[in-house]
């Protein structure tokens, strides 16, 4: 069977933003290294060094402006093969209208909301947002779920239970603990196992930063979490994401890529094809011709 990836490696989780042109409420002086315009050309050399020639841009703000900025970046760079944008899920009528507009563009790949920035961790389970998820489920639009801790994984599992037809993409492996806390790690594993029991839930090998933990054992624990995810999801439900430029708060771009390659060194070619391109291409319905063009 011919691979749908056509030799392309996809970073399925990369951001661009420009606080000089729009609001990003979570940005500020405390995040000085990235509290500025972050544009795709800055990371392209790093991507090329690792043979990564395609990216999926993922939303950074709950606003139409942010989504439009990603499409603007895509128009200038053939490396962009998909865009995970934003729609107001808790305003289903507006969400339907915006979704119809976005789906007219073949680059549109899915929806995400910064649910981890909201004061109510159960916001996504409320009736208005749940109606928005119904809309995504009915139209076959994937939803990226960003989790910031164990409670969020429980919420994600409830979303998957309510919406069995929704393609749910768990960002950053659901934030597994990198500190030396076996009890916390086991709670994360159990929560991930529940999510893996839903066949339309996928996970990104992204957001794993041993450098943020002052502990020499953090890299091996991150590797163990990757192996756990592989055992639960298999390669066909895993995808790689570099999380640039957020990664710069902890370490240079590519450390997650290198960690995954080292941890899963015995994986066969088909498995790597899944993680590095095919899963993202299938879930986000990326046009094979666009993948081929990105690989040139």
Helix content: 40-55%
Structural class: alpha/beta
Strand residue percentage: 5-15%
For the residues shown, what is the average pLDDT?
A: 93
CATH structural fold name: TIM Barrel
Per DSSP, the total helix count is 10
- Report the sheet with the most strands, covering strand number, pairing sense and barrel closure: 8 strands, parallel
> How many domain units?
1
Strand arrangement across the biggest beta sheet:
1-2-3-4-5-6-7-8
What is the CATH homologous superfamily assignment? Metal-dependent hydrolases
Q: Termini distance?
A: 22 Å
Low-pLDDT stretches are none
Keywords:
about 300 residues; alpha/beta; TIM Barrel; eight-stranded parallel beta sheet; about 10% strand
In words, what does this structure look like?
It is globular, with a radius of gyration of 18 Å. The longest helix has 16 residues, at 218-233. Strands 1-2-3-4-5-6-7-8 form an 8-stranded parallel sheet. Helix 7 links the parallel strand 7 (201-205) and strand 8. The protein has one domain (10-295): Metal-dependent hydrolases (TIM Barrel, Alpha-Beta Barrel), CATH 3.20.20.140. It is α/β, with parallel strands linked by helices. The chain has helices spanning 44-49, 64-76, 92-103, 127-139, 150-162, 182-196, 218-233, 255-263, 269-283, 288-295, and strands spanning 10-14, 54-58, 80-85, 108-112, 143-146, 168-171, 201-205, 238-240.
